[in-house]
C-alpha cells in the first residue's frame, strides 16, 4: 500500500509541503530564541544543480528537429524548503517550443517552468540553434556483409545469409535520408562452426561515419548465417545386383537426378569421383518401372544433399528388336564452356568453373547430332553480394532437348576491399 502511495505525484507533494512547513517552524523557533526582536523567521538559503532532459514541442508527424540537446544543466538558488520540494516532486520542465516555426535553421530560447516562484533558475544556455526538416519515410533493402570469413574453422564455409525482414522503413529529415539507398549489417563469422542467428539493431551512418538521427521500423533485424562443411557436386552412378527375369534384358538405368552435392572436408572431396547408389536388386524384374534407390555416403563425407533418388529401370524382352529412337530415354553428357555476366569486375573477383558437364535428355536421333557448340550455358550474377552462392543456370539448347543437370552452379564473389584487408592482416 505504501509503495502505491509513493508512486502518486500528489502524495509526494503533500509530504514535501509538510517537510517544508516543519523546517520553516524549526528555523523560526531557533530564530525566536536567539533574537526575540524579529517578528518574522529567517529561512535558510541554498543552491543545487540538476541535469534536466530538454523537451521539444513541435509537430512530430510532419517535421524532424535536429541539434536539440538531450539534457541541460540547471542551477537553482532559493529557500532550502523550496529546493527540497523541487527535488522530491520533480514537477518541472526545461523545453524549447518550435510549434510555430517552419523548416530551416532557427535560434530559439530555452525555457523553464515548475521550479517555484521563490527559486532563481539559471540555465546552462539561454538559446539553442536547431534545424527543422520536413519528415520523410523511405523503404530500403537490407543486406549483410560477412566479416572474417578467412577465420572460419578449417573445412567450414558460409552460405547466403537469410535476412528477416529484407526491407525496412527509414524515417527522418528529407535532406538526411535522401542518400540512404541500403542498410548493410556487418556480421562477424570468425570461429563459427555451425549455423547461427543474430538479432541486430541497424545503425545508419552519414558520409563521415556518424550515426544519423533517423528511426528504422522495424528496428530489430534477424540474420541467420548458414555454416557448413565444404561441398561439391558429383555425378550419381546407379549400381545394380542380380539379373532380370529370364528372357528379359536390362536396357538402361535412367536417374531422375544425375548429380548430388556432397559435404565433406577438402581432402575427402578431392578423392571422390562419383556417388553410387546402394545396389538395386534386379532379380525377377520383367518390365520397365521406377524404383527408389538410397545413395551411399562416400567414406569420410559427413552428409549428402539428398538421401534417395528415383531410378527408372528400362527392361525389354530378350528377343525384342524394336527401335527406341522415338522414346525420351536416351541421355548424353557434354562438356560446355560457361559464360558469366552481371558482376562488377573492378570491385569483385570471381571463382567459378570455366566449363561444366551438362546432361541432356531427348530422342536418340537428336542427341546424336548435338555437340558442345549446340548448348549455351550462362550465369547471371546481377545484384549478388560478396560470398558463396548457388546460381541458377540459364541454358539454350536445341528444340526437343531437355537439360537434366546441373540446375545450379556454385560460385564465390570476393570484394576487392576484403582481399586488401586480408592481405594487410597477413
Automatic annotation (TrEMBL):
<protein>
    <recommendedName>
        <fullName>YbbR family protein</fullName>
    </recommendedName>
</protein>
<keyword id="KW-0472">Membrane</keyword>
<keyword id="KW-0812">Transmembrane</keyword>
<keyword id="KW-1133">Transmembrane helix</keyword>
<dbReference type="Pfam" id="PF07949">
    <property type="entry name" value="YbbR"/>
</dbReference>
<dbReference type="InterPro" id="IPR012505">
    <property type="entry name" value="YbbR"/>
</dbReference>
<feature type="transmembrane region" description="Helical">
    <location>
        <begin position="10"/>
        <end position="27"/>
    </location>
</feature>
<dbReference type="InterPro" id="IPR053154">
    <property type="entry name" value="c-di-AMP_regulator"/>
</dbReference>
